[in-house]
Design brief:
- The protein contains eleven helices and nine strands.
- By secondary structure, it is an alpha+beta fold.
- The chain starts with a helix and ends with a helix.
- The protein has a nine-stranded mixed beta sheet.
- The longest helix is centred in the C-terminal third of the chain and has 31 residues.
- The chain has three domains: 84 residues, Orthogonal Bundle (434 Repressor (Amino-terminal Domain)), CATH 1.10.260.40; 128 residues, Ribbon (Umud Fragment, subunit A); 33 residues.
């Protein structure tokens, strides 16, 4: 594991002391020293904290020997050019197959979503999820289904089961398309994405329901991305009122408002005269 030498190298390249970094990360200097000297192993929370501080993916901190990179490569990495962060590197996905060696569609229900946030890469956790197949989907692609909760994606109803296709290269995320995204802070979210990875190293996520404001997610917060394929629901979405009917409804409302105004004025006049 390259973690100890990598964080020491990155710290020195930033011109920071152990005290500086330890203070920024909310840990003791002795703890940081233990990590740098391989006396102790970092927790998951510590790995995430270092990833955020240096702007470099956990995968890179653990797997890549930064000392072997050229100066230009290191500079690119520090400017946000991490292939792991950008998603262009192959990502290992925990999955299950049936007796014919075809990929299952694992179902992540509302109850299972909390565990998925930490167990998404654990083959044992994934193996315990219920599975099914949709014969009209390609056998050459990997799918997973997540249960939607809340009203942020109306008219897709609360409780719907949303199926997504695994996205290995995040650079292929198309702005304006729907994606199921697993993040460190927000867990599983289903949103319309705007791809800002090349310019700002983040995704801007929008809800279909205009009552919800869009928000940004930095790429090093993202763990998985699934492109929306379809959804299954037992509810019928609310009907869309045809334009002619909508115009009639608005016109009728205007008449009612005008009638109320006239009645109000008559009552006001009577009160003044009386």
């Amino acid at each position: 594991m390259n973690f100890s030498t990598n964080i020491k190298l990155l710290r020195k390249r930033k011109g920071r002391t152990q005290d500086d970094v330890a203070f920024a990360l909310g840990m003791k200097r002795s703890t940081l020293s233990g990590y740098e000297n391989e006396i102790s192993q970092p927790t998951v929370q510590a790995l995430i904290a270092f990833s955020r501080y240096f702007g470099i993916a956990v995968d890179t901190l653990l797997k890549v020997d930064l000392h072997s990179l050229s100066e230009s490569q290191l500079s690119q990495l520090e400017r946000g050019g991490d292939v792991y962060l950008k998603g262009s590197n192959i990502r290992i996905l925990a999955t299950t197959v049936n007796s014919a060696n075809d990929d299952n569609i694992e179902l992540v229900s509302e109850k299972a979503k909390a565990g998925y946030t930490t167990g998404f890469a654990d083959p044992g956790y994934i193996r315990d999820l219920p599975v099914f197949h949709l014969p009209f989907l390609s056998k050459q692609k990997k799918y997973r289904t997540f249960q939607l909760n809340g009203d942020s994606m109306l008219p897709i109803p609360d409780g719907s089961y949303v199926t997504g296709e695994f996205v290995q290269d995040w650079n292929t995320i198309v702005s304006g398309h729907g994606y199921i995204i697993l993040t460190m802070d927000d867990g599983i979210v289903f949103k319309i994405a705007e791809n800002l990875l090349n310019t700002d190293h983040k995704l801007r996520l929008y809800s279909l329901n205009p009552m919800y404001e869009p928000f940004d997610t930095h790429v090093n917060e993202i763990k998985e991305v699934w492109k929306f394929v379809n959804y299954i629901s037992s509810e019928i979405p609310d009907p869309v009122i045809p334009q002619d009917e909508l115009i009639k409804t608005v016109t009728s409302l205007k008449k009612d408002v005008n009638l109320l105004k006239r009645r109000y004025l008559k009552d006001e006049i009577r009160n003044r005269l009386g």
